[in-house]
Protein: CBY1 protein
Amino acid sequence: MPLFGSTFSPKKTPPRKCASLSNLHLLDRSTREIELGLEYGIPTMNLAGQSLKFENGQWVAESGSFTGDRREMQRLRKRNQQLEEENNLLRLKVDILLDMLSETTAESHLMEKELEELKSHSRRRK
Structure:
């Protein structure tokens, strides 16, 4: 039996109102753009004197805005290719050196084992 009267019973909460009283979320995209002015256009930026625009998921130089030297671009591409080839060659050399190291280590362990066996065999003879 409760000490101070009835058991705890909270009041029922009233039903919630609609989250948005606006009907703009019911409109299609083009109508919302007209109503709310959401037409921003293509994103653009200016980087190191070069104007770029974002199209199809990539930043692309706007036509006629490239002020850099085409020869410089070709030189950089060629240098990049050379560095990639050098990097691949160095990776191959590292792999070969690791293989040589593991082979030499295995041979060394075998020789140490044989030496220990010979020492123990010679001790038994004495």
